[in-house]
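User: Here's a structure from my thesis project, written as structure tokens. My advisor, Dr. K., wants to see whether a designed sequence matches the one we expressed. Can you design one independently, without my sequence as a hint?
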């Protein structure tokens, strides 16, 4: 008997501690942008809620406003029902028809079972509003005429479908740059601004045809079904670079001599910026920090040129750059090294002829010898009366350059048979003797040309 009474007392105590829920409390409703409602069920900690259910539906056309009524929602109409665990304390519902009254009711499950549905409460989801301001608008230079503008989508981008952004409008403003000496183009634009329409959902846009040496700012506005939102704050200023030519490819070299080389190059790819001339530089150092020489003003119509003034026996690197009215492009990468031939004595004089011959006077003429690295400083002539030149004597005549040939005159000769040889001299020494040419002053025989 005592055990039975004790059990009844414990049951009564539990009943006092965990009163059964007869009806759930009304949920709290919060409006969400563009056809949304956030539902927050309410229960106390001591209720020990396990799960909860939500029913909602729009108001029918023939139905009176039930906001604040004491109906339990069991009215025979079709409801949408959702069941959730107790750790979900708020439920956002999106995609509801805006400006139409919707009804909501909840029920709670406790250890004692399910409660009755709460009183029905109503709310009309708010209509979409124009998008908020875009944030973090910034721009970068893509090339000399194009900028890439990026921005952060407005907050209501993630709302229901009616509130989503459908297009953007980009406002471009600039401060006209002062005229550049020699630059092409008309007068500065009077408007100082332009708009670019973007008919898609995006977070970036390329803006072409921008002018060099001009400060630009960018603002973005978004639009949805309700219209255009406010323009964003201006981006930081973007100064477009001058329209200088692109960096050229490394030049190629050929036909290297002791003092010259032929350089070839390709024109820049951004042909719209124009080229006024080309510039070259070359050096014998590997780091371009010393012994650098330059050549400016090479015609823009050329794609190859002869570089003179090199030293014999040196290894050179070459670079090329294009120049226009805005300035010079970046130097190209260095060419492959090219070595000029080592210097040595002049080449052997190949051919001597005698254009004039008198009884005591002879003119010798020959094609100039190749210098082979150093300037020819003098010539030596030797003459003899025997073809093996065993009795030859040397002299240093005065040599003149006429019509591309070297000429010397020998006077006060005797009326004898002569054999002449010529050699050229430079800093490295004397060349080999030419083949002998025979001149007979004892008769009126014609001059003989050495083969």
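Assistant: Designed independently from the structure alone:
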């Amino acid at each position: 008997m005592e055990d039975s009474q004790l059990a009844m007392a414990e049951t009564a105590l539990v009943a006092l501690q965990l009163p059964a829920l007869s009806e759930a409390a009304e949920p709290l409703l919060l409006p969400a942008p563009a056809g949304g409602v956030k539902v927050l069920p309410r229960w106390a900690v001591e209720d020990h809620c396990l799960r909860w259910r939500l029913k909602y539906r729009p108001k029918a056309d023939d139905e009176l406003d039930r906001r604040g009524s004491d109906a339990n929602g069991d009215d025979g109409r079709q409801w949408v029902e959702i069941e959730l665990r107790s750790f979900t304390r708020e439920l956002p519902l999106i995609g509801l028809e805006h400006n139409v009254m919707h009804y909501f009711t909840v029920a709670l499950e406790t250890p004692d079972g399910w409660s009755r549905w709460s009183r029905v409460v109503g709310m009309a989801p708010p209509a979409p509003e124009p998008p908020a301001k875009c944030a973090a608008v910034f721009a970068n230079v893509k090339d000399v005429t194009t900028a890439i503008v990026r921005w952060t989508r407005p907050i209501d981008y993630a709302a229901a479908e009616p509130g989503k952004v459908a297009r953007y409008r980009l406002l471009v403003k600039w401060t006209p740059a002062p005229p550049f000496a020699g630059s092409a183009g008309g007068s500065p634009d009077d408007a100082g601004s332009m708009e670019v329409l973007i008919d898609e959902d995006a977070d970036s846009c390329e803006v072409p045809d921008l002018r060099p040496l001009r400060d630009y700012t960018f603002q973005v506005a978004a639009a949805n079904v309700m219209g255009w939102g406010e323009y964003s704050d201006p981006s930081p200023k973007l100064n477009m670079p001058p329209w200088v030519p692109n960096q050229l490819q490394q030049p190629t070299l050929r036909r290297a001599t002791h003092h010259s080389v032929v350089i070839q190059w390709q024109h820049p790819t951004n042909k719209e910026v124009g080229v006024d001339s080309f510039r070259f530089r070359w050096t014998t150092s590997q780091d371009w920090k010393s012994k650098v020489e330059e050549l400016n003003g090479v015609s823009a119509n050329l794609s190859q040129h002869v570089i003179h003034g090199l030293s014999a026996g040196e290894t050179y690197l070459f670079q090329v750059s294009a120049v226009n009215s805005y300035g010079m492009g970046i130097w190209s990468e260095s060419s492959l090294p090219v070595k000029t031939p080592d210097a040595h004595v002049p080449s052997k004089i190949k051919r001597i002829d005698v254009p004039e011959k008198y009884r005591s006077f002879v003119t010798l003429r020959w094609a100039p010898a190749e210098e082979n690295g150093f300037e020819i400083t003098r010539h030596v002539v030797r003459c003899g009366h025997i073809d093996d030149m065993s009795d030859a004597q040397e002299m240093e005549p005065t040599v003149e350059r006429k019509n591309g040939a070297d000429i010397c005159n020998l006077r006060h000769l005797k009326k004898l048979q002569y054999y002449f040889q010529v050699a050229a001299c430079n800093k490295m020494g004397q060349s080999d003797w030419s083949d002998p040419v025979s001149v007979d002053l004892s008769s009126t025989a014609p001059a003989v040309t050495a083969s």
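When you compare it with your expressed construct, this may help: The mean pLDDT is 84.
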